[in-house]
Design a protein that fits this description.
- This protein is mainly β and about 325 residues long.
- The protein has one domain: Beta-galactosidase, Chain A, domain 5 (Distorted Sandwich).
- It has one helix at about 55-60, and strands at about 1-10, 15-20, 25-30, 35-40, 70, 75, 80-85, 85-90, 100, 110-115, 120-125, 140-145, 150-160, 165, 170, 175, 185-190, 195, 195-200, 200, 205-210, 220, 230, 240-245, 255-260, 260-265, 290-295, 310, 315-325.
- The strands form eight sheets. A nine-stranded antiparallel sheet has the order 10-11-12-13-29-25-24-17-22, with no helix packed on it.
- The longest helix has 5 residues, at about 55-60.
- It is globular, with a radius of gyration of 18 Å.
- The mean pLDDT is about 95.
- This is Aldose 1-epimerase.
- InterPro entries: Aldose_1/G6P_1-epimerase, Gal_mutarotase_sf_dom, Galactose_mutarotase-like, GH-type_carb-bd.
């Protein structure tokens, strides 16, 4: 375990980089956004997650890369929701809608490093009532643990002293081949349904997975295949279940298990790191990496049939995800 300075946040505070290692896996975290900044597998010469070696990229075009997104990941239609019996409006940041809780959100804040060891780190974020427009004094924790031979376990928890909304997601992008690009990477999902969308928002229909959206048996992705949809794993949080397997042309594989009832699959159509080089030494561009985001379903406040994202006082939000790598 090592902790080094990664840069300086806009408010002058130091941003720390925490490196953990166990078995064949080494990961680096930032206390900014609880970002999963780098993932390395022994014997593999390239990074397995898309990111950048400099802080400036994460303060700009890569602001969601690897971060814990919240308090509500994905979209809230009309940037409004009914919370605790009252209507709450937010500042829209994607047309008329709210995306990933706005320009600040959890991804843009420094988390407190509570505990850290050779293979485990616990980070915490405390937010006062009204921050980002959401009610409740909230405490959020992100626990990262490595277990041999090559598994990363992420447990996210949250509590609030007032009715609020909570839908956390890790927003890592995966690159399992020596060169960026989703083309030819094989994706399999244990999802029999998905959510059609219009202008980024789910229409409310829960559609059976057929044709291009039937990934139950797995298939290679096209080099510019556009997917940005929630795949329905269950109708409520459940026990830890294997839900996805991504295999690169290189033979490197990621198996993802989660307790979350949804998985947003995003093939990176709008990736653009501008002048900032990624881990591979060049800027990141469209379709260079694939995001797999365990979550509750998007825009849930406007769809009663979707799993609820309400968090009541005294209740615990908990989500566990395991990322297991092999080659």
């Amino acid at each position: 375990m090592t902790i080094t300075r990664f840069g300086t946040a806009p408010d002058g505070r130091a941003v720390q980089r925490i490196t953990l290692q166990a078995g064949r896996l080494r990961v680096a975290l930032l206390d900014l956004g609880a970002i999963l900044q780098d993932v390395r597998l022994a014997g593999i010469d390239w990074p397995l997650t898309a990111g950048a070696p400099e802080l400036a990229a994460y303060l700009g075009p890569l602001r969601w890369f690897g971060a814990i997104v919240g308090p509500v990941a994905n979209r809230i239609g009309g940037a409004s929701a009914r919370i605790g019996g009252r209507d709450v409006r937010f500042e829209p940041n994607e047309g008329p809608n709210l995306l990933h809780s706005g320009p600040q959100g959890f991804h843009g804040r420094l988390w407190q490093v509570v505990e850290v060891g050779s293979s485990r780190a616990l980070l915490r974020l405390d937010l006062a009532d009204g921050i980002d427009g959401f009610p409740g004094n909230r405490r959020i924790k992100a626990e990262f643990t490595l277990t041999p031979p090559a598994t990363l376990r992420l447990v996210l928890t949250a509590v609030s002293d007032a009715p609020t909304l909570m839908n956390l997601a890790n927003h890592s992008y995966w690159t399992l081949d020596p060169e960026p690009g989703i083309g030819g990477q094989h994706l399999r999902l244990a999802a029999g349904h998905w959510l059609p969308s219009a202008d980024g928002l789910p229409t409310g229909e829960i559609r059976a997975a057929e044709g291009a959206f039937d990934l139950c048996s797995g298939r290679p992705l096209g080099p510019a295949e556009e997917i940005d949809h929630n795949f329905c794993l269950a109708h409520s949080p459940r026990t830890l279940t294997e839900v996805a397997r991504l295999t690169g042309r290189s033979g490197v594989s990621l198996t993802l298990a989660t307790t979350a009832p949804g998985l947003q699959v995003y093939t990176g159509r709008d990736i653009d790191s501008g002048e900032h080089a990624g881990h591979h030494g060049r800027p990141l561009r469209a379709f260079d990496a694939l995001a797999l985001e365990p979550q509750l379903w998007p825009d849930a406040p406007h769809h009663p049939a979707f799993p609820s994202i309400d968090l009541q006082p005294g209740a615990l939000f908990r989500q566990e995800t395991r990322f297991s790598f092999s080659a």
